[in-house]
Amino acid sequence: MLVLLAGIFVVHIATVVMLFVSTIANVWMVGSSSFGTASSGLWLLCNQTCEQLSVSSSNEASLKAVQAFMILSIIFSVIALVMFIVQLFTLEKGKRFYITGAIMLVCWICILIGVSIYTARFTGEVPESTTSHHGYCFILAWICFCFSFIIGILYLVLRKK
């Protein structure tokens, strides 16, 4: 049981780190053109220098929603990690980590909403690029989506022995 708890803890920490990286770094979409490679993220557009990401007024609310949901997912993931540590030392034997699992599933929903909005509204949109593809931050966000669901379910069914 100790090995299972340690494994879940390590995967949870990896999920938090990947959420930070995917939210902060600006490589959600990568495009190439005759001027070189450009990447855009949630905050900046980087070609050779980085500048504020400019979006149309119809997409501005969508971008703010993606930013908000990704930040919320980080917050809920960190809260779930702290709650896991607290419950690990305060729960009696045989109890389940219901609160931690529920918070992690809220994190999962936030990632789902944020990345889904980004996929629907911003896929393939890198200014002045001829070809574009998803960057590593976008892929990390989907990996975090999978990990947070698995961790949330494991917390719900996990008993402390």
What is the spatial order of strands in the main beta sheet?
Answer: 4-3-2-1-5
Order of helices and strands: HEEEEHHEH
* Gross morphology: elongated
Which class do the helix and strand fractions yield? alpha+beta
What proportion of the residues is helical, as a percent range?
A: 55-70%
From the alpha-carbon coordinates, what is the Rg to the nearest angstrom? 18 Å
Number of helices: 4
* Proportion of residues in β-strands: 5-15%
Can you tell me the number of structural domains? 1
Spans of 5+ residues with little confidence (pLDDT < 50)? none
- Work out the number of β strands: 5
Terminus-to-terminus distance:
7 Å
Q: Report mean pLDDT, rounded to a whole number.
A: 87
- Major β-sheet profile: 5 strands, antiparallel
Please, could you describe this protein's structure?
The chain has one domain (1-28, 57-126, 136-160). The chain is of the alpha+beta class. 65% of the residues lie in helices and 12% in strands. It is built from four helices and five strands. It is elongated. Helix 2 (57-90) runs antiparallel to helix 3 and helix 3 (98-122) runs antiparallel to helix 4.
